[in-house]
Every structure is written in structure tokens, then in C-alpha cells.
Amino acid sequence: MPEGVTPVLGPITNALGEVYQYTLEFAGEAASEHSLTREELIERRTLQDWVVRPLLRSISGVAEINSTGGYVKQYETLVDPQKLRYYNLTVNDVRTALTRNGANAGGGILPQHAEQYLIRSVGLVRDLEDIRHIVLEESAGTPVYIGDVVEVRIDTEVRYGAMIKNSNTEAVGGGVLLTSGGNAKQIVSRVKQRVAPINKEHMIPGGLRIVPYYDRSELVDAAIHTVTEVLAEGVVLVVVLLFLFLGDLRSSLIVSANLLLTSLLTFLVMIHIGLSANLMSLGGLAIAIGLMVDGSVVVVEKVFAKLSHANHTSHEKLRPPAKLRLVLDAVGEVATPTFFGVLIIILVFVPLMTLEGMGGKMFAPLAYTIAIALAISLVLSLTLTPVLCSYLLKGGSEEDTWLVRILRRPYASLLQWALDHPRTTVLSVVGMLIFAVCLFPFLGTAFIPEMQEGTLSPNADRVPNISLDESLRMEMAMQKTMLGVPGVTGVVSRVGRGESPADPASPNEADVLATLAPFDERARGVTQDKIAEQMRTRLAAIPGINLVMSQPISDRVDEMVSGVRADVAVMLYGDDLDVLVARANDIARIASKVAGTQYSRVDRVGGQQYLTINIDRGAIARYGLNAADANDVIETAIAGKEATQVYEGERRFSSIVRLPNTLRDSVQNVREL
């Protein structure tokens, strides 16, 4: 590996692992619209890295804490070329001296009578004064210190990313990444349990607090609430309909018991086989609720009809043995069609179980949950339901209920008319079929309904060679526009990349989270789709950006499937980049005219400018230099090269050597190196 490159393992997570994101703020700071200074951003980033991150990183199930925003503190040694020339020194001499004075050493063991001492030499630099007093060389008996030829100060690392909150200030925060395969609900709950005492007991110096702006558990709770609500509605609907059509409350209770028990057993089986209750599996359970009662309803209706007929034809009360035989006969008559009916429904979802890759990860849990629920409901309808019927059902009158009588009158009249006019009936049905087929191309279709996450992610990328400062300025303008859209309560943008390599990005890219007001707090008719469309319309007026309107989870899933944050991606391959870009623009123009396309864009694949330094080997040979010597000077003087590390207690900061900014901030200055 090249010098200075140390391979490390990345966090054991995936693109969907960021489940909890936060900023560090004072209480009430959001309402004050205070713009943080550079010094405040340095201090908050230091606290984030060395206080907050260790506190959260120790939580079980957390793979990494991705620090974002602010400035990373750094010790800088800024060399003065004229003073170096006076003492006949080089930049490399300064870096070497700093490196040699930044380490401890062990001296073994020193026995002393009945005791022994462990010998160690403490050579770590502890502050700016220690760096200034490092000796470079000795001249005529006088030591030349680093402080004689350089300026030593505390500054910040070159940053490649930043965070902006609510368009008025930069911010510092982090994102919690869960371990691959972890339960987002459980891990976020643990994070909240840790955050609560941190904020309450003021564990962060200066009174700072952890303020979340994205919480995946809220979406999970909403999904669980939806399943619970659908289950309750299903139970009520089954009870009401069966009572209205059968006129027997006990029949309704038997089917409802089967529905509730099926849901409970489905969760137990999911736990046993390791199928997590994620958004897709819960969605599968919600879909299956209407199907889970079919077998039980058929069995209950058949048993009820048998008992009613027996009561009508027999003047004596049925004895238990006779009742059991009657229930068994009734179940035997419907068992085969019920079994194959449910089996056919299960087979419909088998193709989803065979999907591989990202499609399998997304839709297989849904299919497995539906299959498990239907299989359990079938077993219960042929075992538990007959037992409950033998205990609870007594049968009733063979006469129709009042609701069936009301519905039967128009049905009987319509049926009689159809039998009297067979030709007209057949032609009418064929005409309606043809009309329905003609309408089919105009119907909107979707493989699965789009989930409303309650948070929008209007991501925009800019020209590749844009500076971070200019990108931040444009992002603040975008945030002001987004905050002006009704229904948007807050916006946080991460421009560029954070510390963790799990989600790398360039300064021209922004990861935006626009938090929406809860649905019940919005004005009437203000839906997420309308907010997104209004936001997209306003942002489209800002020049120099490529915009994709998405949602956090949907955005990450699209990126995992195709590498592009879009629902549909077209990738072109070839040798000529200009030709590829031209063809991509042609495809985008055609795609924008396709019905159902909201917006399209072409990713920026070029435009990053380079300042190339070509080494004149003949010229450096006259001075006895090699290309490595020139490269070392360029890397150290311009970018800065780490020489050692400075420890402040448990905190650790890099100490680098570089040229002052005034000597490296232009092409001419670089040329004069």
C-alpha cells in the first residue's frame, strides 16, 4: 500500500442502515435562528466525535455513527519558505522532525532490589508550545527550533462535506447506522433510551442536546398502527356482515376468533423462522386479513345451514353425538374446495418467493407472510372452527334474514328478466366486456402502491467542479424555497460526504431530508404528493441543479438496485464520453414524453477540472532530485501531510505540515513552489 494508506474495515451495514439522524443544538436554538460561527462548529464537531459518538456507538446493534458537518480540529505547522531557505532547510525536514518528536518509547524493566520499574519515555507533543520547541538542527552551537521557521496554530482539516439546517446556519450532527440485518425498531428504541438520559443529565458539555430530525421508528410505528387498524376493522366488518346475513352473533364471534388467532400465530411463526416484522411483511399481513376469513366463513355457514335444517326437520333437540356427526359431515362437504381454494391463492404468491437479489429482499417477505397467514387460517378453519361450532352454534330458522329478503327481491326480478331475454343478456355482457377492455389501457397501474414515508428527499446535484462553499450557498437558497412550501416543517441537508465511507458523495451532491407536518395537522387537501409537486415546481426555477424528488427509503432502495437514485435508470456504456452524454440527453428527451413520467435527468459525468503539475525530469536531475522528492513537496506543501498526532486526554488530533494559505491559493503560487 502507498505510504500513509491504512486499509480498514467499513461498517457492517447497508444503504438502508441509517435509521436515526440528529443534530447537536442548545435548547430553543432552532427558534432563535442563530448562525453558528466557525469556532462553534469546531467545538461541536469535537464534542460529536469524542463525546456523543462513543456514547451512541456502544449501543447493541449500532454498526457506526457517521459524523457530519462542522470542522475537524487540527494542529497546523505552516512553514515559511524564506526562513527555510535561510537555514538551508526543506519542508520535509520540518515534517521529519515533527514525526520523530511525536511518539513514546518503552525501555524495558529496571529491577531495584525487591521491586522493579517499567521504563517508558514520554515524547508525545501535548500542545502548541511542545511543537514550537522541537529542534530542527544546530547552527554554531545554537539550536534552531520549529517555532523559528514556521507558524504553529490550531486550525481545521480540509473538509469535503457539511450540514445545513433550516436555511439559516450550518450544523453538526450524525447518523446512526444499524448492523446489517438488524431490527430498526428495536435499535432505534435503544438509541432513544440512551439519548434521553444524555439530554436530561447534560452529559454533553456546554448544555448541548441531541435533537433528532429523522427517526425510522416513526414509519415502523405508523405501519404497525395501520396493520392494527386494518385488523380491528376486519374483525368488526366480519362480525357485522355475518350477523346481518346469517342473523347469528355466535357465527360472527367464531370467525373473529379465527381471524385474531391466525394473526397471532402468524407472528409466532415469523419469529420462529427469523422473518422480521418489517414494512413489507406487515404489508403482507394487512393484505392477507381479507383472505384469512374465507375458509372459516365457508365452514361456519355450512355448519349453520346444516344445524338450521336439522332443527327445522326434527322436533327433538339434537343430542351431542348427532350434532358432532352433523358438524363433521358439514366440514367434510366443504373441506376439499376450501383447501384447494386457499392453496390456489397461496400459489399466486410463489413467484414472489423465487425472486433473487433486491427484488427478493423487498417482496419475498410480503409473499411469505401472506402464505403463512393463509396456511394457518386453513388449518384453523378445518380444526378449531368445527370445534367452536360444535360448542357455540345452535342453528336458526331456515328463513332468510330481513336484509337477505330485501336484497332478494330486486335480484329475483333481475334474474327472471335475464332468463326471459337470454340473447339481450349475453349481448349486454359481451358489450360491457369489450368496453372494459377498451378502458384498460387508460387505467393507471402499479406493481405495489408507493409508501408515503412522511419525509421527502429532494436531492439535487450540481456541476462536478463546484466548490463546497458555493454548493452550500446554493443549498441554503434551496432550503429557503422548500421551507416556503405549506406542510414542510424543517429541512436538513448533508452536502458532500461525512466521516463514514458508508455513503460517499462529492461536494456537488446533497442528501436532503424535508420533514413534513403530520397528516392530521396539515390543511385539508394538502397531501404528500401535492407537497412534493409544489416543491419540485419551485426548485425547478433554481438554475444549475439536477433534481430528483424521492423519499429516504425509496431513494436508498433505488440506489441499491441500479446505483442511481431514480425509479427507472438507463445506463450507457462506451469509450467516447461525449457520445454517451449526447445519447443520454436524447434518451431523457424521449423518456420525458412517456405517459406517467414526472421528471427525468441525466447524471453529470464530466466537468471536474484538474490542475496538472508535470515534473521536468531534466530540471530536477540537475539538483539531484527524484520525482518522489517533488511529489512529496507538492503533497506536503499544498494538501498538507500528517506528521504526528496530538493527544488531549483521550481526544486525538492530527498535526500536519503545509504552506500558509496565501502561498498556495492560486495557480501562480503553485507554479512558484
Give me a quick take on this structure.
Helices cover 50% and strands 18% of the residues. The protein is of the alpha+beta class. The protein is elongated, with a radius of gyration of 36 Å.
Write up this protein.
This protein has 24 helices and 17 strands. The mean pLDDT is 83. The strands form four sheets. Strands 1, 2, 9, 10, 11, 12, 13, 14 and 15 form a nine-stranded antiparallel beta sheet that branches. A four-stranded mixed beta sheet has the order 8-3-17-16. It has a two-stranded antiparallel sheet with strand order 4-5. Helix 7 (184-200) packs across helix 8 (216-246), helix 11 runs antiparallel to helix 12 and helix 12 (320-348) packs antiparallel against helix 14. With 673 residues, the chain is α+β, with helices and mostly antiparallel strands. The two termini are 28 Å apart. A hairpin with a 2-residue loop joins strand 6 and strand 7 (142-145).
**How would you characterize the largest beta sheet?**
9 strands, antiparallel
The best one-word shape is: elongated
Q: Average the pLDDT over all residues and give the rounded result.
A: 83
Tell me the β content.
Answer: 15-25%
Poorly predicted runs of 5 or more residues: none
Which structural class do you get from the secondary structure elements? alpha+beta
Please tell me how large the radius of gyration is: 36 Å
Annotation field: number of helices: 24
Helix content: 40-55%
**What's the N-to-C terminus distance?**
28 Å
Count of beta strands: 17
How do the strands and helices of this protein lay out in sequence?
Elements: E1 18-25, H1 29-32, H2 38-57, E2 62-69, E3 73-79, H3 81-86, H4 91-100, E4 105-112, E5 115-121, H5 128-132, E6 135-139, E7 142-145, H6 146-149, E8 150-156, E9 161-165, E10 169-178, H7 184-200, E11 209-215, H8 216-246, H9 249-273, H10 279-292, H11 294-313, H12 320-348, H13 350-353, H14 357-382, H15 384-392, H16 402-420, H17 422-439, E12 455-461, H18 468-483, E13 488-496, E14 510-516, H19 528-539, E15 546-550, H20 552-562, H21 577-591, H22 617-622, H23 627-639, E16 641-648, E17 651-658, H24 667-671
Parallel strand pairs: 3-17
Antiparallel strand pairs: 1-10, 1-11, 2-10, 3-8, 4-5, 6-7, 9-10, 9-13, 12-14, 12-15, 13-14, 16-17
